[in-house]
Structures are given as C-alpha cells and as structure tokens.
Write a structure and sequence with these properties.
Length: 203
C-alpha cells in the first residue's frame, strides 16, 4: 500500500518546528517548577534556622539567669549551714559543773581520779566551704569551734571490781551515749598495789 502526502513541505516543516518548540517550552516549564520548589524549600529551611537561632538565644539567656539563681541559692544555703553548725555547737555545750557532780556521785568509795579531761584535749576549729559564696559571706565568715565528744577518766581503784562498778553507774546515769572501760591494770602505787583504770565516756 502506498501513502501519498499532499501537504506542502513548508507546512510540514512548520508543524515539526511547532512540536519541537512545545517540547522545549514544556521542559523549561518543568525546570522552572523544580527551581521554584527548591527555592521554596530553601526559604523554609532559612526560616526554621532563624527560629532555632532565636530559641538558642532565649535558652542561653535562661541559662545565665539559672546560674545566677544557683549562685544566690548556694550563698543562702551556706549561711543556713553556718547557722546550723553554730546551733549544734551551742547544743553540744555541757554544764561541766553538773557533769563533774555526776562523775563524783557515780564513783565508788574505793576509787579516786588522777586525771579528768576531754578527748581531744584541745577543741579543733574548721571553716565551712567557701565555694560559690559571695564576698560578703566570706567577709562575715565565722569559725565554728568543734566541741569535744568524749570525756576520759583516769584513776585508781582498790580492787578490780570497783572500776566495773564505776562504769555501770555511769551507764545507768543516761548522761552518755556510751561508757567503755579502756584499761584496768594492777600497778604499784604509793603504799601498795592498786588497779589503774581508764574510762571513756562519749555523748
């Protein structure tokens, strides 16, 4: 079968050119759409990045405020701890006259003391930590005297039972948290042999 095209050559060329132009315009249109879409995504990301930067600045500002509040709270806590230490030191003070009377009343007739003192003999002192404390707190810093926590009794007894009786009487007084006989040894003393004892009373 033979097909015969009676369309003039000029019209055929124009038609082919129009098809090529339409294809080109379609390709350019799609490229423009893709470019506009990319611009839109980039713009959205820029907006999000700007929003994140603002949030970071706000968080940094809040962090600085939090650090200031923390330093202020630490300073207040230091002052409160110093007051508590001072109150504890006052509560730990003992009426020594009453304590000596208690020891004398608890001591059996066959005992006598040659030494009575606190342990440690000299009270220590310490200063609370000065970390995160204002200059005003450091200026007004108080030294807390550590009160002794133990009483040491050294003496002699006519027999070994007297020192144990002494310890039991001190325990029954309920004035101490613990009473321990640290040592009891028979030794020569003056006109004979006696038992040298050492007692620790802790409150």
């Amino acid at each position: 079968m033979i097909n015969v095209n009676f369309m003039p050559k000029r019209m055929a060329l124009a038609k082919a050119r129009n098809r090529r132009v339409r294809k080109w315009l379609c390709a350019v249109g799609w490229a423009l759409v893709a470019l506009i879409g990319a611009w839109g995504v980039d713009g959205t990301r820029r907006v999000e990045a700007g929003s994140l930067r603002n949030e970071i600045m706000v968080l940094q500002s809040r962090l600085q405020e939090g650090k200031g509040e923390l330093a202020k709270t630490a300073s207040q806590a230091h002052v409160v701890l110093r007051q508590i230490e001072h109150a504890d030191a006052l509560r730990a003070k003992r009426p020594w006259s009453s304590l000596l009377q208690l020891v004398a009343e608890s001591m059996p007739e066959g005992c006598w003391l040659i030494s009575l003192g606190t342990d440690p003999a000299v009270p220590g002192n310490r200063v609370l930590s000065r970390k995160a404390v204002s200059k005003e707190d450091v200026k007004n810093e108080a030294i807390v005297i550590q009160s002794p926590r133990k009483l040491r009794l050294v003496g002699y007894a006519t027999n070994d039972d007297e020192s144990f009786i002494f310890v039991e009487r001190l325990k029954k007084s309920n004035a101490f948290q613990s009473v321990n006989l640290l040592k009891s040894k028979r030794e020569p003393h003056r006109d004979g042999f006696y038992y040298r004892f050492e007692i620790a009373c802790e409150w």
